[in-house]
Amino acid sequence: MTLWQTSLTYQIWVWLCDVYEDSTLHRFLAAAGRWCSGQVEESRILRPLCREGIAARSWRDSFLCRVLSALVNLPGTLLHAWYKAWNLTFEDSFFARLAFDMGDSASIAQFWCIAALWCIPYERWNNAYSFMTGVLLLLLFYAGAMRTGRRLDVARIGTIIALEEGLELDREWIYAAALLHDCGKHEQYENGTPHEQASARIAPEILKDCGFDDKETDVIVTAISRHRDPEAAKEKNLNGVLYRADKASRACFACDAEKDCNWKDGKKNLTIRY
């Protein structure tokens, strides 16, 4: 648990988020958003304007996109390799752990920086401040990436997918399913038990200890047990979100063994989508 997550400010923020998610305002805005999305999808005028064009679709698989993605992520990749080589040294350092925790909260720092831009009068602002702020946020991002690697994981991608598709899934369900969906993989290595089955057997006790009720546990465990089931791919629920997020989180584009991997290219993630 990070220093930020143990702070009073964080606890107040979580409480406010929970209040908002259970509020009438949130339900109204979510319903309004779904209605607007439906109008766009059904409109013969707006739908062609909003859909992804050929150029945008081809960009993800282009050589230039892969090169630029590799260059952008190169500092984080090198820093993460350095961290792995000197893991104990960094974890024994208070200042290193503080930097890592601050890096994990880079998105929060970005919010406050944007809020400052809105509040500070234009005549008192200098573009040099914007540049320095951007550099600081980039350093925070790389500080977090140094310990965790790239921010490409099932939980975050699953949350993004749920938001994009307008699915009202509890964020805690998504994170719980993402964190536990491979918890039984050791059994697959030890005795050949499919890890989705082992994970589904192990997860309920952990979920109970974390405060999930029986109904929530059933939903999460079902998603875990089906995260390798192709039939779940198109489902508009937690099963489908976990399946798609799990596949999208494979960092094949940064894997040293990608060229020797026996997976077909269609199964690999060679570009960053989320």
Summarize the model shown.
Helix content is 68%, strand content 0%. With 274 residues, it is an all-alpha fold.
From the structure above, extract its key features:
single chain; globular; mainly alpha; 3 domains
Percent of residues in β-strands: under 5%
Which consecutive residue ranges, at least 5 long each, have pLDDT under 50? none
CATH topology of the largest domain: Hypothetical protein af1432
| Helix/strand structural class | mainly alpha
Q: Average pLDDT value? A: 78
Largest sheet: none
Please tell me how large the radius of gyration is: 21 Å
Oligomeric status:
single chain
Tell me what the CATH architecture of the largest domain is: Orthogonal Bundle
- What distance lies between the first and last C-alpha atoms, to the nearest angstrom? 25 Å
Helix and strand succession? HHHHHHHHHHHHHHH
Record field, number of beta strands = 0
* Number of alpha- plus pi-helical segments: 15
Domain module tally: 3
For the record, what CATH class of the largest domain applies?
Answer: Mainly Alpha
Percent range of helical residues: 55-70%
CATH superfamily of the largest domain: Hypothetical protein af1432
Shape: globular
